[in-house]
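Following up on my earlier thread - several people asked me to post the actual chain instead of describing it. Fair enough. Here it is, all 666 residues.
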Amino acid sequence: MLNRIIFWSIHNKLIVAVLTLALIVWGLFSLSKLPIDAVPDITNNQVQVVTTAASSSALDIERFVTFPVEQTMATIPGIEEIRSFSRFGLSVVTIVFTEDTDIYWARQQVQERLSEAKNNIPAGFGEPSMAPLSTGLGEIYQYTLRAKKGYAQQYSPADLRSIQDWVIRRQLLGVKGVADVSGFGGELKTYEIAIDPLLLKAHEITLDEVFTAVSQNNENTGGAYIERHNMTTYIRTEGLVGSLSDIENIQIKHPSAETPVYIRDIAAVKYGAQVRYGALTYNAEGEAVGGIVLMLKGANSSEVISLVKERVAQIERTLPEGVALEVYLDRTNLVNRAIHTVSTNLIEGALIVIFVLVLLLGNLRAGLIVASVIPLAMLFAISLMNVFGVSGNLMSLGALDFGLIVDGAVIIVESTLHLLQHRRSKQLSQVEMNQEVYASASRFSKSAVFGQIIILVVYLPILALVGIEGKMFKPMAQTVIFAILGALILSLTYVPMISSLVLSKKIQVKKTISDRIIEKLKNRYIPALTFVLRKQRWVLTTVVLLFLTSIFLFNQLGAEFIPSLDEGDFAVETRLMTGSGLTKTIETTTKASRILLQKFPEIKQVVGKIGTAEIPTDPMPMEACDLMLILKDKEEWVSADDKEALAAKMQAVLDKELRSVSFGFQ
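Reply from S.P.:
Thanks for posting it. Predicted structure:
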């Protein structure tokens, strides 16, 4: 069968050429659509249920919220585990499903049981809801919103938060691939009715009557319509509260013989802020407002970030005067660094392989034929990656070995050159060339295929991995298998066809550089081989000792699950004493930011993320802060030459200035 494929390819050159061109077009199109990321997303199949109860202790949250939610969700099929997190005012329940469970089906099952969970939670403890369909790698774009210099008095934290929620977030939610936008910091604007207990008692009014009056006087309703003189008049009543005065004029009680009692008679109505569990600081300027764009699970991060940037550019033109939107974390930087590393390694590897091929084959045309298999096999692999949903990242593309890919092509081309050098005729016709290429290729086709199959078998066990290991390493195995399959097909079709066309038909028997290299290697190899065959016991003993030594050394080596990825910035884990208030944490974070900005010119921005965001997918206590240090380009550094030294100096300064705070650089 292999010989038939080779024979058909040699005698149907036009068809093979057209198919090769189609592969190039398909591969380039797939390359433009390939999802690009830094690393594979290893987040398990999970649904989060979040409940916020502003005034409940951690113990009450666990008893009255977390436990009922866990108990209600426990009957859903396909659950691997349920884990929970209870903190003051917050409950987060994470339901992990098996990998073969459709995530949308899982979310539907959770949604159907949320109503039952709500019935089991006492009144006043909040209502559970599902978190957005995102993952641990979903925080792709983070920005701050602050008042420019000279406008600080015009925009309060509540005003900035309102702009974030009602202007920016609303427009970003319409971007393809965005799951949600989580607000961070600022003050969520509320209307407060501060009741005076003495006035409440003097008017003989209960709190329930106040609640009832406010709720009943804050709604619109419809009343059908009336036809008059061939015209229709629609009836509706407007009762929605629109201002503080509307609340003040709500009537609570109107006894038949007494003066009416309004909200203004027993309370002070004013603007307030919802209870906060987090804040955001910018540089040494104090509080600001931020936003975190969460990407939909399975979306193409590069494409989503590009669309978000386009929308942000439009939003910036509509922001009020004096308000600045500034991006401090963009996943594109990490992706670009990872892809740059992969691209550099692939290009350097390809050049080395091509150089060695041309040198050792001793024929420029033959070397280029084999080298051309590399980009074609890559395009084939990228096309299949798109088909099977494998993203291009450090693990998948970084695992490619071009030496393995061209193995079959080397066998076919080298055997052809060897056979041509033993021809008596000095000039071959195209028919004779076809026969020679077929004879050599068919003779060694099984060797070429067998060698490729051995490599494929090595990667097959990786496909059996499950869980986090499977998500991390399966893309690597799949990409290598796709590339080798492409190289195998090309070795049996494209390589024989192009060899019969491109290789010189004029045979010249002369010594080349490669012949001299091989002769020198043989001159050293044959005596060494003879010596080894005579000293078999000594060789075996040496091999065993080397093997045991390697096992010992292997056990001494460190290990990492994934390679270290450097975004070029620092995340400083900041911790105050347990129980510290939010105001204290804000003051400490601002002070730490001021110290770092004053003493280290390498820092471009400092953003402090304190406590929990609006969407608490990563809940932290109020005494905890992630201090994001956005650094300038390394060429502008003056305090240190590398990141380790810079981190050590920053650590020393912070420990000296803020002794009661712990800092950890990441």
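The first strand starts at residue 45 and ends at 52. That should answer part of your original question.
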